[in-house]
Amino acid sequence: MQKSTNLSYTPITEFVLVGFTGVSQVPELIGVTFIITFTLTLLGNVFVVLIIKHNESLHTPMYIIICNLALSDLMYSTVISPKVIQVYLTGSNTIRVPICLIQMYFLHFAGSVHSYMLLVMAIDRYVSICHPLRYPSLLSNTKAQLLCLGAWMLGAVTVSPLVSIYAASIQLYCGPNKIPHLYCEYGLVISLSCNDTYFFIQLGSSIGSSILVGPFLLIALSYLKITISVLTIESSGGRMKAVYTCSTQLLVISIYFLPRLFVYIAFASGMYMPGDIRISLGLLYCLLPPLVNPVIYSYRMREIKQIIVKVLKIKEIPTEIRVKKICVSEF
Asked: Which of 77, 141, 160, 179 is the right S-S partner for 41, CB 3.0 to 4.6 Å?
């Protein structure tokens, strides 16, 4: 896409986040909805992190990975939600260009870490099910921590070129300055540049492949091997246990990857997408996983459920004990 490179322009200093169309009558309702969502996300993920940190029984590779996923979820939600709340509760829908680029960096950083962390989780499940006898030696707590650290570092490295090169082109923003979204999305921001954006589009596609498509294909391959391995388990109980454990991870993976892959394919192919649909999908893959992941972990993970029961002191009293207490109290 060729754009004018005329040097007689006035650089813009801020962008306008347009957001959803046709909701001007109920902005407060949307703002309150995001406040509730953001609060629940913070409480849920902080709860997961604290539960894992303060219970030695959960100091295992799988829960180390889940703890890091919760931290990346906290970053994801914190990068987006406060500005969305500000837009709808105060009407302040502008964002300065440097702040926009910073938001873009941390948004893609959190997304990259999440993709790589889900890959680490798939590796953990693969080793656990396909090589159960060698699991303690192949994936110890220390190795799991190193893999998680690698995911954080790799996420920072793969996104840095994207933002640094784009930040170098900041002087080329000369109007218009309206972003049809609620946060600074890479594809929409570069479309506002005054110069030729072909290079930036190709750059975005390449980085998108490395942080999204690559991990997704490796995850799919690992679960294919897991499926083959599960089918060879003779014990029906063993098969059900493996399926139950993996179904939790697959649910988390699907919620994150499917809408994100759709948006990536649409962006790479130049497909037209109505503004409200693009915003909805963007919010879906950015804010839904951080909101529901703690619920999934708490409901599906037996160890976390047991600790929650202990913390809340709602363990059921055996029937015989209740009967004895009632009988004693009557005399």
From this structure: 77
